[in-house]
Amino acid sequence: MVAAIRKSVRRKESAARTAELVAAALRPFLPEPGLLREDQRTGDPDRYTQHVLHVEPDGSFSVVALVWLPGQRTPVHDHVAWCVTGVYEGVEHEQRYAVHDGHLVPTQEVTNPAGDVCGFAPPGDIHLVRNACDTKAISLHVYGADIAELGSSVRRTYDLPLAG
């Protein structure tokens, strides 16, 4: 999986095109039942859990498994770099937003079951992600950044009112 992602990233395309290429590279690996070890499938009852699986030595990308227990979600946020998400287990729901006149404006809702892949690049990557099922959900995230160095791919969170 890492070799396929590396090949896509090394093409040095635009951020948006890189996200498309990485999405295509990630998709075939999502059905593999043994892709994650048991410790990489473990959640936390208090918040969604991030397991760093790989950081490319040059910092050009990182692969992370996020484990979501029922009801867990992110805050509304954006990212420091392009991002690709593949749902490995369960179902995730994503609400995308734009900011207009100091308010969050919902722009698109996406529900992704296991096997679905999506990718995006800033700007225009403001969203909230949540577990949309009654069981654990696990997604693989590939970020165009060194997550070991940064700790997270989140650039900022948005605590703005919804447009009325």
Key structural traits:
Jelly Rolls; oxidoreductase; 3-stranded antiparallel sheet; 164 residues; 3 helices; RmlC-like_jellyroll; Cysteine dioxygenase
- Please give the oligomerization state of what you see: single chain
| Count of β-strands | 10
Beta-strand percent range: 35-45%
What CATH architecture would you give?
Sandwich
- CATH topology call: Jelly Rolls
Q: Please give the share of residues in helix.
A: 10-25%
Q: Uncertain segments of ≥5 residues (pLDDT<50)?
A: none
Query: How large is the radius of gyration?
Result: 15 Å
User: In CATH, what is the homologous superfamily?
Assistant: Jelly Rolls
How many alpha or pi helices? 3
Strand order of the largest sheet: 1-2-9-4-7
| Mean of all residue-level pLDDT scores | 94
Write down the CATH class. Answer: Mainly Beta
Q: Note the gap between the termini.
A: 44 Å
Q: Could you say which structural class the secondary elements and strand pairing correspond to?
A: mainly beta
Number of domains: 1
Family: Belongs to the cysteine dioxygenase family.
Protein name: Cysteine dioxygenase
Organism: Saccharopolyspora taberi
Keywords: Dioxygenase, Iron, Metal-binding, Oxidoreductase
Descriptive overview:
With 164 residues, this protein is mainly β. It has one domain: Sandwich (Jelly Rolls), CATH 2.60.120. Helices cover 15% and strands 40% of the residues. The chain contains 3 helices and 10 strands; from the N terminus they run ααβββββββββαβ.
